[in-house]
Amino acid sequence: MTSEPPASPTRRTYSFLGPAGTFTEAALAQVPEARDQTWRPVRNVGEALADVIEGRSDAAMIAIENSVDGGVSTTQDALATVPGLRIVGEYLVPVEFVLVARPGVRLEDVSVVAAHPVAYAQCLTWLTAALPEHSHIPATSNVAAAVGLVDGGISADAAIAPPGILKLYDLDLLAEKIGDNPHAVTRFVLVSRTAPPPAPTGADKTSLIVELPEDHPGALLELLEQFATRGINLSLLASRPIGDELGRYRFVIDADGHIEDERMADALLGLRRFSPRVLYLGSYPRADRAIVRYPERYSDEVFVEARDWLRGLVSGEPEA
Amino acid sequence: MTSEPPASPTRRTYSFLGPAGTFTEAALAQVPEARDQTWRPVRNVGEALADVIEGRSDAAMIAIENSVDGGVSTTQDALATVPGLRIVGEYLVPVEFVLVARPGVRLEDVSVVAAHPVAYAQCLTWLTAALPEHSHIPATSNVAAAVGLVDGGISADAAIAPPGILKLYDLDLLAEKIGDNPHAVTRFVLVSRTAPPPAPTGADKTSLIVELPEDHPGALLELLEQFATRGINLSLLASRPIGDELGRYRFVIDADGHIEDERMADALLGLRRFSPRVLYLGSYPRADRAIVRYPERYSDEVFVEARDWLRGLVSGEPEA
Amino acid sequence: MTSEPPASPTRRTYSFLGPAGTFTEAALAQVPEARDQTWRPVRNVGEALADVIEGRSDAAMIAIENSVDGGVSTTQDALATVPGLRIVGEYLVPVEFVLVARPGVRLEDVSVVAAHPVAYAQCLTWLTAALPEHSHIPATSNVAAAVGLVDGGISADAAIAPPGILKLYDLDLLAEKIGDNPHAVTRFVLVSRTAPPPAPTGADKTSLIVELPEDHPGALLELLEQFATRGINLSLLASRPIGDELGRYRFVIDADGHIEDERMADALLGLRRFSPRVLYLGSYPRADRAIVRYPERYSDEVFVEARDWLRGLVSGEPEA
Amino acid sequence: MTSEPPASPTRRTYSFLGPAGTFTEAALAQVPEARDQTWRPVRNVGEALADVIEGRSDAAMIAIENSVDGGVSTTQDALATVPGLRIVGEYLVPVEFVLVARPGVRLEDVSVVAAHPVAYAQCLTWLTAALPEHSHIPATSNVAAAVGLVDGGISADAAIAPPGILKLYDLDLLAEKIGDNPHAVTRFVLVSRTAPPPAPTGADKTSLIVELPEDHPGALLELLEQFATRGINLSLLASRPIGDELGRYRFVIDADGHIEDERMADALLGLRRFSPRVLYLGSYPRADRAIVRYPERYSDEVFVEARDWLRGLVSGEPEA
């Protein structure tokens, strides 16, 4: 596993939010196909997606949702506006935080804490109890806070960081599991250029971004009915401002199932007819590998049988 | 126009509720293809449909709904239970009644009136005012009442009959337009053996009989949504007991549009997936030739475009 | 039990479709309060309801639905158009038919059968098998056919009648249980002038007649949602033409529950706001005494609790 | 207008995100009742709400949504979890940014830019074009970046700040209107302790936070139907993770109308019956003062009339 090796026709390149040690790197480590390939650290989601679009990388790993903070707005907005992308996989990383300092610093010495704002917010209960007088300096990533301690770029006494940081830098552990929610997890997606979706596994998810056709009571209702009337459960429904004016939103949707499932294909057709803008982000295996359950009446066989029946009606065949 | 001519390979045969002079015959007279063909009078709907099924007739004209009395139960039940039929046309006949008697009888002489019970019910207001003391003898058809006067088979002084009766029999007109509702109309359908539907005209109707999958709050709702969510208006929704126990019904439906309209085909697929028993009775031109209106978003082009879009997604083509 | 006794302030009068021996009389015999009161036979539903409206009777028993034939159109239309009535009870009578003749006539002698057309239709399978050559003379009621045999008013050899006829007239039984459906049953309702509904029993039914506000896709859907969104099951939904033109219907509805149930009261409010014409026909105990089941979330307590909560919000009380 | 004056029984205190110069202060300046009262600057939303709950302030102004970035997660989560609060007003502040520096610094001298991360993201297009080589130092607020320039606490050459900063500090304007979206606006709400809602104005908004009763296809649909079936439009629907596990959300809702509007009261009753957790945040005048439009059938009179009608049915009064 190395960063930025010389290009090779047989190697694949994966962009991720660096530097080494981030949760995003931990997500990329879950991808079997990425082992022994080139991992390309970038500074933000925009860079990662640009790498994919412009061919510098084969795929990018990006954070899309956190169980405590919710959707990652910049990722959702980037996927909504950058064409030519496809989500091909999903990965979960438990979010755990440690408090670290330069060797010799003790907890009672800490008055200034460096932390990425999201990490800081997730550790606030612990910090308030353990360091009631502390002040906060924001950092651009969870790893950057720790690196700043090491290289002196940040004038803080301690930093909040992922546990893996201790293997990468010469830092002391002051406290561990300082996150407020012990079950916090971040969801990542692996994004490639537009390509056919991976084959259905029975435990798949389909991601979409949809704009409503007009602002009237019931438009969102109609959107959701496209799924409900085909027995499709949604695991995510988030709204993001389109940005042109207050009150106009697009909806980020994760639906249980694969585009090659008949009920999902039918729902997509319904959505497309309903909405002027439906962006299909991809169908891919769920990170938790949970088999999608649905009422028998929405199975592929039922759809196929109905089509055969309709064909017979039109051709005038006597009914069986 | 003759009844029961010798069979001929080039002639077609049409069954209708006889004898000559009935409203059903008036409906058959509206069928251009039936001119100069064989018209076969029968005694009831069962006989008419049996003629078609068993090949004695090419088609049968049967009454299906009256604007005052509602659906014709026997017709609806026969269509629901006799397989192998297809509705191919719809015809409207204004329902107008006259009071007739043998030559010489005057209105003030009338004390007993012969009439088919449905016709009698539709003239009750007039009869109560004009002949307050009359009594009623039921007849098996509107024409049979008049024929009974002529041949003495019914011991009545007058009969309620369609206006055309005066051209067929030697009877005097005592009163005309005696129906309570001057706009009353009966709807007839022409029924053939199962065959491909006539080509769409833009002013079509599709007839169905549907049983609900189970008795729970919302099953009928779900049935109706199959139409509403495709912009399809229903011109008829009637319930008929299935007959096995109280509270179990099948639904007789007329929907605006043709099975070859994309939105109707899609609704039929939805119905078939939803219900264990959907009987397609046919798609055919509406009697009133009124062009079917629907929101632009349900046009054929929108359906075709959505299918192309879906195909592109699955094949991994970059979006336009 | 006598017909037409002298009026008495302490006696109640009940109108029913006579003469003695009809299924309607059998329904009235199920009403405990009607025992030893005055039973007033009438010739049709219109007369029965006029008796109630004009004070000649306290209540009228009328047939409203048959498990084989469906809704009784004349009853449904009369209830829809005659104001000032309220259904106060429901009764079921099994429909069983016998073939009777004057003493001495044998089955093999029968060539002409008198029968009310509905009864005739319900016995057609048996008649076709047992008397393939018979012809049919229609009668105005099931009892009138038999009476016509006795008094010679109908020139038939046999009559279809209810089993009770043998206790009333000197007739011979030629065959019994000749109805095609052994489980056929007719539903009757007892109708009084407008009055408060009988107290809820937990096994109640509410009857309504509703016109849709306008003819657009989804109006009927919206009507049905008023029930479905309150967990209310419908045991009857029938359409009847309003009569002014083809394609305009009113809907006859039986809903599980009582107007004093919170969920039903709320549904009625929703209906009234939705539709220009909602006719409440009454809430009354179901004939089958089946306790109405509904999801716990639609119980009275939930409605009461929600109102208390809302009141607290408006008054600005801190939430518990 | 002063910060932190001595307490006085006749003065009211308003908490806001300080220091002076923030957009939040600009929102508070729109509140007529806050003029000449005590304005209390705080560091974050948690402090502002704690001030209100614990009685240090009468109300707090907090940012709730940005037209470009979407909902402010920390505010939404705080409102969802801190009991005893009520939104009493809404205010809009256009979001405009300037680039400032210490006197004498020119644009071409700038290599390091201090900025709150959200502000930085909103100016990225301009920065990339004007200062392609710059690097970014994050600050804790828009004003703190500028203050850091003045007091030397941040080692940057320039800062992104609101335009009002120039009146407060001795800084030079390097560039104005550098935000990527010229129409960007932030929505603020004024929050007090639980109290009766302000009187309806006809241009009101009702804010709610709702958890779904269970995770099944259609639960969200049912939630939305509570509004759609009463003609109520939603101006905001956002999902926020409940935080206990991935895939569990609460919904933040702004609905057009006031709790004292009959249709809104009815919708709230429906919501409460449907969901185990409905948090009412308040009804208050919309910032844009746009009169709420709704179909006539959802007017207060229709609700009142329906209740009168229902009352008459139960009491047994003859219908008018």
Report on the structure:
The structure is a homotetramer of 320-residue chains. Chain A has 320 residues and is α/β, with parallel strands linked by helices. The first copy, chain A, folds into three domains: 11-94 and 185-195, D-Maltodextrin-Binding Protein, domain 2 (3-Layer(aba) Sandwich); 98-176, Periplasmic binding protein-like II (D-Maltodextrin-Binding Protein, domain 2, 3-Layer(aba) Sandwich); 196-320, ACT domain (Alpha-Beta Plaits, 2-Layer Sandwich). The first copy, chain A, is 28% helix and 30% strand. In chain A, helix 8 packs antiparallel against helix 9 (262-274). The longest helix of chain A is centred in the C-terminal third of the chain and has 16 residues, at 300-315. Chain A is elongated, with a radius of gyration of 23 Å. The termini of chain A are far apart. Mean pLDDT of chain A is 90; it is low at 1-6. Chains in contact: A-B, A-D, B-C, C-D. Chains A and D meet through helix 8 and strand 14 of A and helix 8 and strand 14 of D.
Can you lay out the helices and strands and say which pair or pack?
Four copies of one chain form a homotetramer.
Chain A: E1 2-3, E2 13-17, H1 23-28, E3 38-42, H2 45-53, E4 59-66, E5 70-71, H3 73-81, E6 85-94, E7 98-101, E8 112-115, H4 117-122, H5 124-130, E9 135-138, H6 142-151, E10 158-161, H7 165-168, E11 172-176, E12 185-193, E13 204-211, H8 219-228, E14 234-241, E15 249-256, H9 262-274, E16 277-285, H10 300-315
Parallel strand pairs in A: 1-3, 2-3, 2-4, 8-9, 8-10
Antiparallel strand pairs in A: 4-5, 4-12, 6-12, 7-10, 7-11, 13-15, 13-16, 14-15
Helix pairs in contact in A: 8-9
